[in-house]
Write a structure and sequence with these properties.
Length: 377
């Protein structure tokens, strides 16, 4: 799964959601999708800060989107059949999300206006909740692997818990990278302490690390030098399809990369979007009820920028990742991130078919009452 993060670029490929949606609408129209016959659908997290994108989709597509999403930005693929009956032409938008706090430049934080102290909170809370256990395991390992010089020899000191391979769950070291092995086997410890053991350091690792980590009579923790290639996680996760642990399953193989990255919440959202696009794409192309229909499936990340004083909604930015498009004439193709971005940018941000929400709501309010009859005919 290492290749997953490969070509996903974030910084130069994002656009405001308010510009993304009209471009997507116009792009779908350019493929022959019919005005007034498009049913949009979204697979977003249940968080309230995903509401503004949904309002924008409603405005530009002229219909409230079908709900294809589960918490964490998982696509409910068992809803394909029902969804297919709701529109002639279909547009599914999947997005994982991550908060962003402009004052601190931090991803994963979001200011909630409806709580007493307007405090910053985790966003996406579900993704950060899943990552919590992995981040704690990683933090323990960063503190409990250390380097020292004992009797003139460079050693690595490893906590006994990290050396216990009979654990059912936890962070596990790629031990051969740390320890100078003895013809392929872990050698006897150089020294045994009450809660840890010291081993002669693998010279390759020693050469890669700064000399300052080795000090006579002092233990220097590995800290951030504990990079993703040096460990892995083991944890029992439910295999149920789109069950409670689907998000964790999506992220689990990439967790060493996620916990060691500068912005774990952002990288987790990215990985989830990549896995969900691939996973949902396969269910879409094999779905009978989609056959012969115009359909676009697009996946990306929503970056929720905390609302500032006086703002009602977040300024959401969308980072497109990939799209699958099929038309009634039997054309079907994938758009990779760069092609998708170019296709979107080539479209106008002006959408003459958009609805004015307040006018549409007013029109409904002005409509004469419809009496609901309970009398049998
Ligand atoms: Zn969320």
């Amino acid at each position: 799964m290492q290749y997953l993060m490969g070509d996903f670029k974030i910084s130069e490929r994002m656009m405001r959601f308010s510009l993304f949606v009209p471009r997507l609408y116009n792009l779908c129209r350019s493929y022959g999708f019919e005005k007034g016959m498009i049913m949009p659908s979204r697979a977003f997290c249940s968080d309230e800060n995903q509401g503004f994108p949904i309002i924008l989709i409603t405005k530009h597509f002229g219909a409230f989107p079908f709900n294809h999403g589960m918490v964490g930005g998982i696509v409910a693929t068992d809803r394909h059949g029902a969804y297919a009956h709701h529109g002639k032409d279909l547009v599914i938008i999947q997005a994982s999300h991550v908060g962003y706090e402009p004052e601190t430049g931090q991803f994963g934080a979001y200011r909630r206006l409806q709580v007493d102290d307007k405090r910053q909170d985790a966003s996406c809370g579900k993704i950060l909740g899943v990552m919590d256990w992995y981040l704690k395991e990683y933090a323990f390992a960063k503190e409990n692997i250390s380097f020292s010089i004992i009797d003139g020899k460079a050693v690595v000191l490893i906590d006994n818990q990290l050396l216990d391979h009979n654990r059912e769950a936890g962070i596990f070291l790629n031990i051969h990278q740390f320890v100078a092995m003895d013809s392929g086997n872990i050698p006897e410890p150089f020294k045994v302490f009450s809660t840890s053991k010291a081993f002669r350091i693998n010279p390759e690792l020693k050469n890669r690390l700064p000399k300052s980590l080795w000090q006579e009579g002092k233990r220097v923790p590995v800290g951030k030098k504990l990079t993703a290639n040096l460990f892995y996680f083991k944890k029992r996760v439910s295999e149920a399809l789109e069950g409670r642990d689907q998000l964790e399953r999506n992220l689990s193989h990439s967790m060493p990369r996620i916990v060691t990255s500068t912005f774990p919440g952002l990288l987790a959202a990215q990985v989830n979007t990549q896995v969900e696009f691939d996973r949902a794409y396969r269910t879409i192309v094999s779905e009978d009820s989609y056959k012969g229909k115009n359909l676009a499936f697009i996946a990306g990340i929503n970056i929720d920028i905390s609302p500032q004083q006086g703002q009602l909604f977040p300024i959401t930015k969308f980072v497109p990742w990939a799209a699958y498009v099929q038309t009634r004439d039997g054309e079907a193709f994938l758009l990779e991130q760069k092609e998708l971005l170019e296709a979107l940018l080539s479209q106008s941000t002006d959408n003459p078919d958009r609805i004015e929400m307040s006018r549409a709501i007013q029109a409904m309010e002005d409509t004469p009452e419809v009496k609901i009859e309970f009398e049998s005919q």
